[in-house]
Design goal:
With 150 residues, this protein is of the alpha+beta class. 47% of the residues lie in helices and 18% in strands. Strands 1-2-3-4-5 form a 5-stranded antiparallel β-sheet.
């Protein structure tokens, strides 16, 4: 049975299929690791992924990794859909997506609903476009990560 979507290609893009395959492989890998070994292996997976990124994404991801780990030590690095993410009790709180990997003109740093960044105004951002990290951007990310980490 085939389903065609009006106005679309009727399926997932090549990048979406690749991300889903990476996520399936991540879940399979997680199932086979013991808790202590899993955390160390997850950190190595994230650092390896960042190391393989093209510039300027690598520098941005390295800086975001440093900000998150310094300001939210309760969050654990892990891969999520093939990209660096940070989780509490196995649930992703925030993540970095490489623009080069996603074939976009900018990378993103985002938060899941688990971050609970809800604002009383009823309007709050869930992801940010990132092309460089200046002092002001680093301060904003630091504040958001601290709030999300509780």
């Amino acid at each position: 049975m085939s389903v065609k979507v009006e106005g679309g290609s009727g399926g997932f893009s090549e990048q979406e299929r690749a991300a889903m395959k990476e996520r399936a492989a991540e879940l399979k890998k997680e199932a086979g690791r013991g808790r202590g070994r899993k955390q160390a292996a997850d950190l190595l997976d994230v650092l390896s992924k960042i190391e393989k990124m093209a510039e300027p994404d690598r520098a941005i991801a390295e800086r975001i990794h440093a900000i998150v780990t310094a300001n939210a030590p309760g969050l654990s690095p892990k891969l999520w859909y093939g990209q660096p993410a940070y989780a509490r009790d196995g649930k992703v709180i925030c993540f970095f997506r490489s623009g080069a990997t996603d074939k976009e003109r900018y990378s993103t740093f985002g938060f899941t609903p688990e971050a609970q960044l809800d604002d009383e105004s009823g309007l709050w951002p869930t992801s940010y476009a990132v092309t460089r990290l200046g002092e002001e951007a680093e301060k904003a990310i630091t504040a958001l990560v601290r709030k999300a980490a509780g």
